Amino acid sequence: MRKTKLWLRIVGVFYLALVAMNVGYLTANPDGIADTIPFPVDDNGLHAFIDAWFVFIFALAALGAVMLYASTKPERAGMLVLAVVVGELTYGLAGDIWLIGRGYDAASYTAFSVLHVVFAVTGILLLRGELKDRAALVSNEVSRTIA
What we know:
This protein is an all-alpha fold.
């Protein structure tokens, strides 16, 4: 469980750091956001984009906070790890691929794609390891009960 605790804390802190960075950028430089959009956007479109991005940021904040809380009881956090893994592969990796295909900055989204894959793969490996550990515990308990 030590590895799960560490994973929850690393990914949770990363999510919260991303939230802080995005909130800072969106509030300090909202007009600069237009430069990151690969097609012409008017003020209404820019405001809609920022509003939608804030909804995404709020979800990341919630997940980051829940991961930090769950790290205090990592033995009960398997479904949360799985949910984060699925999120990393869908809104993370698939979302980045979609945005790159739409013309957004490939370099920055590729870097984030690598992080999504790292978080997803390490999360899957943690879950597999925990399943093996639990199976071994059950097997040992059954063996002791029978003997």
